[in-house]
Structure formats: structure tokens, C-alpha cells
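Table S2 (text version). Query chain:
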Amino acid sequence: MTLKALLLRRRRWDALLLGFGTACLSLLVSAGKVAFLFFAVCGLYLAVARPRSLRGAPTAFMGALAGWAVWQIGLSLVRGEPVDGNRVLSYAALEFACALLPLGLGLVRHPAQVLAWGARLGLLVLVVATPIEYAMTGARVGLGKNEAIFAFVVGAVAILARLPTGGRVAFLPDGRFWTYLAAVPIALSGTRAAMLLFAITGLLDLRHAVPRLRAHGRRAAIAIVGGLIVAMLAVVPVGGFLSERVESGVAELEAYEATGLAVGSVDTRLAMWSSALRVLAEHPFVGVGGVERMRLVAAEAGPNANEILRYQHLHNIVLDEALSSGLIGVALMGAALAAFLAGVFRRASDPVVRDAGVALVAFTFVFGLFHGVLLNEWMVLVIFSGMGIILVELRRGSPFGVRAGRVS
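Corresponding C-alpha cell output:
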């Protein structure tokens, strides 16, 4: 087989692999990791063998993400931290791989469209599979994985699912409604922070719903009321489960205020964060490293030290990064997110794409205020791969504003 024939075949294979990988990623199936890392390896090869391929890539985002990853890796090595078990080092390496992934998508004509189709397929499976798991176990749903990780990945995938595709697949039509289908698996996961996704997307979508209501009157009102009814029907069956999760959090806060002792997830976070701020005040610019972070925070926590040492990270995106890599690391992380948003707003003509970009960054940050969103491979992959793929699509003269138009 000639090289030309192989590349022609790969045009089809790569698109199928990306769609399949996205669906697997939404279900936390490891084949999704393999698919995305394949494109990262292809990107590494092109960066070394054909540097000219960088000309059409989102270099600002890639450079910021790679620079942040190199800072984390370099800082860890300078400190002499061990490689084995070093979570910061391994996830920084994964972030560097995500920075190269956009280069590996050269044979996928419209990668963001394929990403959206794969995300929609994954959501359809989740809407069926998660109630079945809940009915069988009666416990928080996570498809065999950590429930918080599961909830975040589902939420991020639900944002990517709303990206416009031109409606070329009849049973996977364009629409913002895809995001709200995630209410079922997220509610069943019992992850309170993930519920904020719907506040974020609801506010963004409301900006467009009001003008449509004025323009189309009765028909738009019926559509909005219908959507609210569907959302309520999806949540009502697990309303008791959700209220228990909220009540338990409130009870933990009240007990912590009264005794100063942390015994649950909410109050332990408060104890960790207050201790972490004291440690950060002593090491603001380069932090203390991911290996020593929890030990030093626990040492500042007094009677809550043992409870804090049960955790592997601080469950806060800013404090985790600040104590691992300093405020310089936080600034580099912010630069990568800012480069993504700048690329979206500079090139996207479709408001749905812009809202998806804002929602992805906002959800990452808001969820990350309560969880270690950048200290898990599933989360890192869905965040930065999704961002890179969106920017690749936009730099190719995006069909987002040409063919796909606006979606309702």
C-alpha cells in the first residue's frame, strides 16, 4: 500500500476513531484514552518531523498549555521529587500531550463535528445506563469509577455535544438540549458541584431565549415551557436523593462551625483550604510541590490532620496548583484557558460555539473549586482535548459560522 493510499484510508479511519474515542470517553471506557493519545502521538511526530505543520495550528493555546506543563515538570525535577507516584508530574505530561493533539488531527476534516456526534452518542447511552445502575444498586452512580470524576466528564461532554454540526445526522440533530440530557446521569451521581453546570448553561441560553420569545411569541414560549417540564420530570424521580446530599452538606457545615472538627467531605474541604492558605503564604511563587503538599497542609490543620491525610489533593483547582507549582503555575494555567477563550471569540461566528467555549471554561473552574479537576486523566483529557479540537475546527474556516449556522 502506498503512502498516499494509506493517508486516504486514514481520512476515514481517523474520523471514526475520534468519534468512537469521544463516546468511550463519555462512558469512562479506557479505549477513549487510547484514541485521544493516538492523536497526541501523531501530533508529536509532526511537531518533530514536520515543524511546518504548526502554521495551521492554534499555536497560542498549544504554546500556553505546553509552557504550563513544562513549568510543572521542570519544577518537580528541580525539587528532586520522585517520579513514581508523582501525580503532578504524570498529569503535567498528559497536559503536554493534549497540547500536541491538535497537530494529530490533520486527516479529520471537521474534528469538532465528529467530537459532537461522539458526545451525543455517549449521552444517549448514559441516559439509559445510569438509571439502570441506580435501580440495581440504590447508590451514587459512577459506572464503576469515582462519582465526582464521572459527573465532571459527563458535564464536559454534554457541553461539547451542543457544538453545531450542520444537522447532517438525522437522529443526532443540533441543539442546546443535549447539555440538559446530562441532568439524569449527573443527578444520579450525587455530585453537588456538577449541578452548577445547568446554572452556567441556563444563564447563557437565557440570553438567547428572551429575544426568541419576543420574536416568535407563542411558539417559543411553548418550547421553553416544554423544556422546563422535561427537565423537572428528569429530576423529580431522584429529588429525595438530591435533597439528602444537600442536607448532609449543610449538617456538616453546622457541625464544623460548632466543634471545629472535620468529619465529612464538605467540612474537611474547609479545613484543608484554610490550612493551605497559610502554607501558600509562606511559599507563594513556586509552592511546595505535589509530593509535600498534603503533608504540610495537614501539619497546619491541628486536630484535623488525620482527616486531611485521607485525601490525595486539596479539591480546589487554584490551591492545588498554587501549592504544587506556585502562583506562577496558576498564572500559566490561566494563560492556557485565556488563550482558548481568545481563539473562540476571535474566530467563532456562531453564538452556540462561543457559549460552549465559555461554559467549558466556567464549568472547569467552578467544579474545580470543589474537586481536583486537573488531577485525573479523564478530566484532563476531556478539558484540553476538547478545547484543542474546537480551536482546530475554527482555524480551518469553521463550518460553525458558514454551513452549520445557528442552532436553537
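Notes on Table S2: The longest helix spans residues 317-347. The two ends are 45 Å apart (CA to CA).
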